[in-house]
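<instruction>
Derive structure tokens from the sequence

<record> Sequence and structure tokens follow
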Amino acid sequence: MSTTAHADPHADGATRRDFLTLLALAGAAVGAGAIAWPFIDSMEPAADTLAAGEPIEVDISKVAPGQQIVVMWRGKPILLVRRTPEALKTLQSPSLLHILSDPNSTVLQQPPYANNWHRSVNPEIAVLVGICTHLGCVPVFYPNPSATDPQPNWPGGYLCPCHGSKYDLAGRVYSGVPAPYNLPVPPYRVVNEKTLRIGENPAGSDFDLNSIVQI
């Protein structure tokens, strides 16, 4: 995506990417249990809109606390999560910040309006490009803290099924994993309390996803 001097680690074609996407998303329903994301049919944009790469609108009113949905924009899975108050508290925990690679989002992986501790416009709603910054797999949603699953002392977040990279519920990458950067945040704006428009910036911003360091 980026024009920076990064070798493309996932240039082996869209077929592999599509297969991994389907594989990981299917596994997410098993791994996340009762609050795993549903792919809500009514939120799927029209085929002609997808083909044109135009902004898409998503109704987030149906997303319950702790739940994720996935939509497609420009051929990329976009992860939308309604974070619980407990999850937001965890995102600010010093014990979590200590083990993140880029807790303050200093690397350009998000628009300026998402350059904050929750990496979003609204703290409650996360909007992330669901492509691991290591080799392009789709991270699986495990929102609940657990002593054992999917890993010991799991704080809640995302686990890449391909090589074990981990991200918190703001898409911030852990230290000591293969992925080098936080998950990207796409351009988007809040239309109203029910609707997000992905692919369109708020007034006064000209952020382009192609400007990020890596996707």
